[in-house]
Amino acid sequence: MNIMYTAVAHATGDGRNGRVHSDGEALDLDLRVPKELGGPGGSFANPELLFAAGYSSCFHSALKLVSAREQADVSDSGVSATVGIGATDGGGFGLAVELDVHIPNVDDATAQRLAEAAHEVCPYSNATRGNIDVTLRVV
């Protein structure tokens, strides 16, 4: 693989109750464990939220790429990623993702085809394939 860009982030403090920051000034956030996992909750980021933000934006870029190839109108489109975390049967933890893809300016069959094509191109989809359950829904 020819690396075209590298992102670097650092975690400090107490893991999920710590802080993350990137090289440069693009990202600098406090993290807290969500209330559902026994944490204090509140308006703080957590690893699942950061993953959802990254996956949804990356998938939307992939959708725009494949749509441009087909000259399909994806203006007003959007992607929402829902990331869940839970205990696995083996005693560890795993993730599940649901991608909701909204493409209002094409018919349903075209929207489905474009979403599936984006799923093949998106780096997050390629990284998670076979490792995380990902549900792709055109809404």
Description of the molecule:
The strands form 2 sheets. Strands 1-2-3 form a 3-stranded antiparallel β-sheet, with no helix packed on it. A 3-stranded mixed β-sheet has the order 4-5-6, covered by helices on one side. The model has no long low-confidence stretch (mean pLDDT 96). It is 32% helix and 29% strand. The protein has helices at 47-70, 108-121, 123-128; strands spanning 9-14, 17-22, 28-30, 78-87, 93-102, 133-138. Helix 1 crosses helix 2 (108-121). It folds into 2 domains: 1-45, N-terminal domain of TfIIb; 47-138, K homology (KH) domain (GMP Synthetase, Chain A, domain 3).
Give the tags:
139 residues, alpha+beta, GMP Synthetase, Chain A, domain 3, 2 domains, three-stranded antiparallel β-sheet, 3 helices, 6 strands, 29% strand, globular
How does the SSE layout of this entry go?
Layout: E1 9-14, E2 17-22, E3 28-30, H1 47-70, E4 78-87, E5 93-102, H2 108-121, H3 123-128, E6 133-138
Parallel strand pairs: 5-6
Antiparallel strand pairs: 1-2, 2-3, 4-5
Radius of gyration: 17 Å
- Main sheet properties: 3 strands, antiparallel
Tally of strands: 6
User: What is the level-2 CATH architecture name of the largest domain?
Assistant: 2-Layer Sandwich
- Low-pLDDT residue intervals, each spanning 5 or more residues: none
**CATH class categorisation of the largest domain:** Alpha Beta
As a percent range, the share of helical residues equals: 25-40%
Give the integer mean of the pLDDT values. Answer: 96
Overall number of domains? 2
- Stated plainly, the CATH topology of the largest domain is called GMP Synthetase, Chain A, domain 3
Biggest β-sheet: strands ordered side by side in the sheet: 1-2-3
Structural class, please?
alpha+beta
Distance between the termini: 34 Å
Residue share in β-strands: 25-35%
